[in-house]
Specification:
CATH architecture of chain A: Roll
Radius of gyration of chain A: 15 Å
CATH topology of chain A: Thiol Ester Dehydrase, Chain A
Order of helices and strands of chain A: HHEEHEEEE
Distance between the termini of chain A: 19 Å
Largest interface: C-D, 34 and 34 residues
Oligomer: homotetramer
Structural class of chain A: alpha+beta
Helix content of chain A: 10-25%
Strand order of the largest sheet of chain A: 1-2-4-5-6-3
Strand content of chain A: 35-45%
């Protein structure tokens, strides 16, 4: 890998300018090489009339885990394709998404993301592929 | 079809309680049997650091078109699976998503959604399937 | 586009070496810039115990339309991701898949494919993205 | 679960009538509650001109693991949607697909499938959802 992996503080700084994720309220909890754990504290804004977290909120949570995990290698990347299966209704007050890298080559990388409630039950399964643009992620902490 | 199709005012009333879509700012523009057109006026909240609409905002827009179209038959439904391909960066100030029903049987229905900018260029292609629960959509206008 | 589009005879010659498609029996019927129509005459080998065409046969049919359409621009490409929704059981003796290009840039292109029976009813909806490798498709007819 | 899980011999008998899988040469290696491992010995018929296993052959392999795993609960089911990401070229002579159940309720169940070569490297990632029809899988060995 031409570029070193980068740490959680650099990733947080980079994704601060991802205004939509901040607007929705998704927080970066943990990162590692090819992995990310993010969190959403669910309130009224994120729900539908049945009290469940909305599909768009669940997607934004999963997508943030995907985006962060795909930037941990230190190179910027853009989403090509995502698939999300909605398996169980999400009633919890705190939801997590955990992403892991399944494959990565020079131009493409694929991630698997699970959206979970606090007891750890998997509610949604997300799979996404990025195109690696190749420019280094800005590293304001170095 | 056991239940009549319902009109745009009933659908707007039904989706008003979809707080996340309202929070993000997605509006219902037009509906018909198995179809929906929705709109997002993009501002700073929806963008990322490069000035493009964020994947979560684009998904929420497409998902709303999908949700509305799948309720036009008058029966409630829940998303089973969605796929979204991100084809072009979304720089416009006004974005639309147009959904059409590709297939529908008693329990499952599938929709194709295009996210477009104002010149009508297709930016994202979304495909989604719902499970039809079978209870009628509340019709407060009747 | 650096390379000219190529014609149906060159595409047939190129895909002759795609032994699996030939083994399954998929034929190229028509091609155009970014489009392809392919056919499968369904017999016992392609069915399951209920007499319907098998998911693998339906996928191979759709995938061939996708592959041919993505090569009509004259550059070789490999599949990155495919999604297929199975909407209706396929009982017909002749099935078609029609692919059209939804988007194409220098490195990625996306196609939408419909699998149809002879009356033209859509049975499956397929969406796929290729990575464009950039080497020209061999053109034995020139 | 109203119906007991069924064993590998009953599943082999049931899938014998899945002529396409037999025609392609996919074999059931192992099954368990919600899981399946299947194998394809790759020969010339399954390859393309570059010597790699064809996308249709890889899909048929993954789809068989998905189908078998979704029948291990003893109830018949039909595919609703599948997604497949092609991550690495498949050059091996023996390929496997391993499916596991991620979620199952009364009507819908979702499976994750990995296609691997003999060293165990993951080549393709497949995700699929079935609709559970509810009729028991025939059990000729009881």
């Amino acid at each position: 890998m031409a570029h070193d992996a980068i740490g959680i503080e650099a990733l947080r700084a980079y994704f601060e300018k991802d205004y939509f994720a901040a607007f929705v309220g998704v927080e970066i909890v943990d990162t590692g090489p090819g992995t990310a754990l993010v969190r959403l504290r669910v309130d009224q804004r994120h729900r539908n009339s049945l009290g469940m977290a909305h599909g768009g909120a669940l997607f934004t949570l999963a997508d943030m885990a995907f985006a962060v995990a795909s930037h941990t290698r230190g190179l910027s990347a853009v989403a090509v394709n995502t698939t999300m299966t909605f398996m169980k209704a999400a009633y919890g007050d705190v939801l997590y998404a955990r992403a892991r890298e399944v494959s990565r080559n020079r131009r493409l990388a694929t991630y698997l993301v699970e959206v979970m409630d606090e007891p750890g039950e998997v509610l949604c399964l997300f799979q996404g592929t990025v195109y690696i643009k190749g420019d280094p992620v800005a590293r304001p902490d170095r």
